[in-house]
Amino acid sequence: MSPLALVTGAAHRLGKAFALTLARLGYDIVLHYHSSEEEALQTKAEIESLSRSVILAQADLTNPSEIYSLVSNLQHLDVLVNSAAFMPSGNVDALTLENWDTALDLNLRAPFLLAQECAQKMTDGGLIVNITDVGAQKAWSRYPSYTVSKAALESLTKILARALAPKIRVNAIAPGFVLQSDIVPAEEWDRLIGRIPLKRPARTEEITSALEFLLHNQYVTGQTIVVDGGYSLV
Predict the structure, then answer these.
(1) Which residue, 31, 1, 3, 34, is CA-closest to 15?
(2) Most exposed among 21, 54, 114, 123, judged by the fewest C-beta atoms under 10 Å?
(3) Cα(first)–Cα(last) distance of the chain, in Å?
(4) Which residues belong to the active site?
(5) In which band, very low, low, confident or very high, does the pLDDT at 90 lie, cut at 50, 70 and 90?
(6) pLDDT at residue 85 above 90?
(7) Which among 168, 72, 71 is positioned nearest to 123, based on CA atoms?
(8) Given CA atoms 112, 159, 128, 202 in this order, what sign does their dihedral have?
(9) In whole angstroms, what separates CA 43 from the centre of its chain?
(10) DSSP helix/strand/coil, 227
(11) Left if phi > 0, otherwise alpha if psi is -120 to 50, otherwise beta: which for 173?
(12) Are the beta carbons of 156 and 137 closer than 8 angstroms?
């Protein structure tokens, strides 16, 4: 039986890259998505072209009952990658309660509930990887709920690592700037990239290689691997 990995937010962007990386390493994939069905189907086809099987799993991870339903259908699990995230913009005086709650529910509560549930499926041991953000150690005033949720997720990573050891390892990957998003204007993106000591965004494979390292090194737990081109230095 092939090892099985669940990747949340795996239809596109970094979640897709993590899912493809795991597939290339021989894992069958539970491909979670929320509303990006067309992209999920495309990613499914790409994974299947690597001769790996794919289970499509649509769920709203801000709803605990949908998390429980998603995991209850799994017989076993070896790897969980918590990549799904929500990044609402809004200064402290403008951020809505809805956006605060959604960010905390998806970025922090969902990884906690998934870890609780998935740990019970990792009967032979396993690895949980939380995708945080270099912003977790910054004071991004335009993204308060996102920044707070990612900082808390790094703290949760350490707590889970202690609680689930020795059978299950828990780590985090904190990417810097990788893929430009619609919420960041081009000129702002260029300004931010210009501040990075290495003067460029990360290549996707430079982020996914951190996942490969955590898969192969069995003596790392409770750690956050920062892959940010030196952005945390400025």
Answers:
(1) 31
(2) 123
(3) 47
(4) 143, 150
(5) confident
(6) yes
(7) 168
(8) positive
(9) 16
(10) strand
(11) beta
(12) no
